[in-house]
Design goal:
- With about 280 residues, the chain is α/β, with parallel strands linked by helices.
- The protein has one domain (about 55-275): Undecaprenyl pyrophosphate synthetase (3-Layer(aba) Sandwich), CATH 3.40.1180.
- The chain has 10 helices and 7 strands.
- The protein has helices spanning about 5-15, 20-45, 65-70, 75-95, 115-135, 150-165, 180-195, 200-210, 210-215, 265-275, and strands spanning about 1-5, 55-60, 100-110, 140-145, 170-180, 230, 250-255.
- It has a 7-stranded parallel β-sheet, with helices on both faces.
- β4, α6 (about 150-165) and β5 (about 170-180) form a beta-alpha-beta unit.
- The longest helix has 26 residues, at about 20-45.
- The two termini are about 20 Å apart.
């Protein structure tokens, strides 16, 4: 696993402060960074040539509320809106890099316990975001326990996913009402119901049950497991994201809050992934 911290940020921060004072030096650093970032992006892109991109990238979009508070905003919904607006850029970056599947964790099962004053607007933002992703031409698949969501929200999300099911190109999995433990429990429940309709006894099922049987009933059934999982906001934990599927994933943790996540941060994650030797336990 890797985390983007102070050492990596120093790649662009090493601009000396002159005796004119810290404030003037800080302004000069900001200007220089703005000028140099395009060249830095080009350098990062060049470093990725010859390397195969990850087929499936999972992203834990964390830090919307902390970004809003750090920006002095009283309403954390502004952070959720800013983060939602940023999603389109990320999908574009993934498409340009050759990624085939991107899974975005927008709402966990734990998030559903938030105060109604925050949860209501957040669900509306998510519903609108999913609709915009579909309108932009992407294929959308909803992964999560939709039965935990308000009925109108669940129906709107499901309808959007079904409308885009036949599209080609990059697939955007949108994890809403998602929890890794809940997904595994739902997979086992679905498996049991499936075999019950076939008349399979518990004893017979126990004899043949293996990991593939459960994998076939996950929300992401039929898709490749994530090669790379990115989490923003500096937190270094999965929090239940794709617990089953991430057994062989590479992890990249970035200090930036999600609304402040830049293309250079994404390219750094790809560079870190390219540098890994994936042995799958061999």
């Amino acid at each position: 696993m890797a985390a983007a911290g102070p050492a990596e940020s120093a790649e662009l921060a090493a601009v000396p402060v002159t005796p004119a004072g810290r404030r003037g030096g800080g302004i000069r650093r900001a200007v220089l960074r703005a000028v140099l970032y395009p060249f830095y992006e080009m350098r990062l892109e060049a470093s990725l040539r010859g390397y195969a991109p990850p087929r499936h990238v999972g992203v834990i979009l964390d830090g919307n509320r902390r970004w809003a508070r750090s920006a002095g905003l009283a309403d954390v919904s502004e952070g959720h809106r800013k983060g939602a607006d940023h999603i389109h850029e990320l999908i574009g970056w993934c498409s340009q890099a050759g990624v085939e599947v991107v899974t975005l964790w927008l709402l966990s099962t734990d998030n559903l316990t938030r105060e109604p004053a925050e949860l209501g607007p957040l669900l509306a933002i998510i519903e609108n975001t999913v609709r915009e992703i579909a309108t932009a031409g992407w294929r959308v698949r909803i992964v999560g326990a939709l039965d935990l969501l308000p009925a109108e929200t669940a129906r709107a999300l499901k309808d959007t996913g079904e409308e885009t099911a036949s599209r080609a190109g990059l697939l955007v999995n949108v994890a809403i009402g998602y929890g890794g433990r809940r997904e595994i429990a739902d997979a086992v429940r679905s498996l049991l119901h499936d075999h019950a309709t076939k008349g399979t006894t518990i004893e017979e099922l126990a004899e043949i049950l293996d990991v593939e049987h459960i994998a076939d009933h996950l929300y992401t059934a039929g898709l490749p497991d994530p090669d790379l999982v990115i989490r923003t906001s500096g937190e270094q934990r999965l929090g239940g994201f794709l617990l089953w599927q991430s057994v062989h994933s590479e992890f990249y943790f970035c200090d930036a809050f999600w609304p402040a996540f830049r293309r250079v941060d994404f390219l750094r994650a790809l560079r870190s992934y390219a540098a890994r030797q994936r042995r799958y336990g061999q």
